[in-house]
Amino acid sequence: MLFSEVVAGIELDEQTHGSCEITGVEYDSRRVREGSLFVAMRGGTTDGNKFIRQAMDKGAGGVITDSRESFTNALSRWPHLCIGLMEHGRRALATASANFFGHPEQKLKLTAVTGTNGKTTTTFLVEAMLQAAARKSVLVGTIEVHLAGEVRESPHTTPEARDLLALFTEGVQAGASEAVMEMSSHALDQERVWGMPVDVAIFTNLTQDHLDYHGTMEKYFAAKQRLFAGVGAPPPRVAVINADDEYGHRLEKFALREGAVVATYGMTKGEWRAEEVVLRAGETSFLLKSPAGEILLRTSLTGRVNVLNTLAASAAAYSRGISLEQIAAGVAELPFVPGRFQTVPNDRGVTVAVDYAHTDDALLNLIRLARELAGKDHRVITLFGCGGDRDRTKRPKMGRAAGRGSDLVVLTSDNPRTEDPGIIIEQALRGVEETGTDCIVEADREQAIRRALATAKTGDIVLLAGKGHEKTQVLADRTIPFDDAEVAARVLKEMA
Q1: Which of 34, 68, 337, 378 sits CB 3.0–4.6 Å from 459 for a disulfide?
Q2: Annotated binding-site positions for ATP
Q3: What are the tens digits of pLDDT across the range 108-144?
Q4: CB of 104 within 8 A of CB of 168?
Q5: What H or E segment, with its residue span, contains residue 402?
Q6: Burial, 243: exposed, middle or buried (Cβ in 10 Å; 0-12, 13-18, 19+)?
Q7: CA nearest to 180, candidates 227, 130, 143
Q8: What DSSP string describes 463-492?
Q9: Which residues are annotated as a binding site for meso-2,6-diaminopimelate?
Q10: 406 and 432 Cβ atoms separated by less than 8 Å
């Protein structure tokens, strides 16, 4: 493919010529091969323009840069090279990748989910409902990538456009007609999803998170709202919005102004509602009431928060032409979502649940669920930590959330990264102390899990919160293997 064909539709500020033969599109110089187009763009932590020389040494066939200085230098050094200059590097990456891969995004109907909590579970539910209707799909999210049934690890919640389009290409080749993905606020703000045509957009909720990046809740909300305006593509055809969330009301008005068909859901409000809710550990049932009629849904997912996630997924799936009967079948067939109230089997009569809850709101919901399941006669023991190099203001809030509903809190580390774990724990401890709840402080997460499980008695519920599906612990100088579920299973076996 010629350079001129790969850059078609990109509004380049300047370019040399377009006759270079391009064999691929890359933004990481380490992946450049002979003939690759290297898109050198400035990112949050690094600047790809620093690696143009490395890309050329590997045989790059062309360069697009978002730096005029880099454009001038490259033109001087390689006068016969195809070089383009564009202010928005990620937009160039998205358009060039779409051209190179043959626009797979136009061959899939995309359902995208945004919000603070519930994105992953909602995408798994939508995928299960599509499968019940015999539709193949591509799923992209925090935990895994699914390609028409094949499961792969997911390096990012929302990949760069080049990698996303490569996945979409594989999905189309495998017979997929649908795509389901999480769209994080970072990805929307950074335009990693530029040009992706979203058919159905879902908003789950908005609570404090990522303020280390966005700065304020209004900027955080504005990033989420971009999904409903379209990022380099038309606005979504359908907007599925949580009517129980205060930001949902604002988003509903915005989506209507953008021309979307709005479907609302909620426990007490909205067109898609749940009645006759029955909650048990590992089992939830409710009567789905909707504009399409009503049907009894049964799921192995636990808790009211998953009732909301199921409502959101149901409204979205129906918007994609899935019947209520197929929705019910899909919900019933999904066994669990990794790291989302994932129970660890044991013979002690203790419910041990691993969950990704890493915000104060998610922690409150998790503990509220555990309290409801434990009843008055048994205790809720909550283990949690706060991530390093992230929003520091939420640490005491998470401490308060843990202390309010728990009988015992075990405060530990959770990916301290470059920060001192002791300082992180101290900041979270202030919130726990405000509640007066007993608290064990143990910075070593494995030892903390051991101590939490050692205190549990028959009927108690132990929550291992914060890491969920994650398989590593990120420290200042290294990353070590660490899986809450595996550690808990091993400790429980030793105790037995």
Answers
A1: 378
A2: 115-121
A3: 999 999 999 899 999 999 999 999 999 999 999 888 9
A4: yes
A5: helix 395-405
A6: buried
A7: 130
A8: EEES-TT--EEE-SS-EEE--HHHHHHHHH
A9: 390, 414-417, 466, 470
A10: no
The tokens describing 49, both together, are 């323009």
Separation CA 127–CA 113 (nearest Å): 12
CA distance 142 to 157: 4
Task: Write down the pTM of the prediction.
Answer: 0.85
What does DSSP assign to residue 42?
A: B
**Structural domains of the chain, with CATH:** 3-100 (3.40.1390.10), 103-333 (3.40.1190.10), 342-495 (3.90.190.20)
Instruction: Extract the tokens encoding 279.
Output: 């909650």
Give the C-alpha distances (Å, rounded to integers) separating 120 from 139, 158, 181, 199. 10, 11, 8, 18
Which residues define the annotated binding site?
A: 29, 115-121, 157-158, 184, 190, 192, 390, 414-417, 466, 470
420-454 pLDDT tens trace? 999 999 999 999 999 999 999 999 999 999 999 99
Terminal C-alpha separation, the chain? 63
Q: Which two tokens stand for residue 60?
A: 């790059």
Residue type (1 letter), 66: D
Q: Please say whether the beta carbons of 109 and 198 come within 8 A.
A: no
Phi, psi at 369, each rounded to 5°: -65, -45
Instruction: Say if residue 305 is exposed, middle or buried (CB neighbours under 10 Å; 0-12, 13-18, 19+).
Output: buried
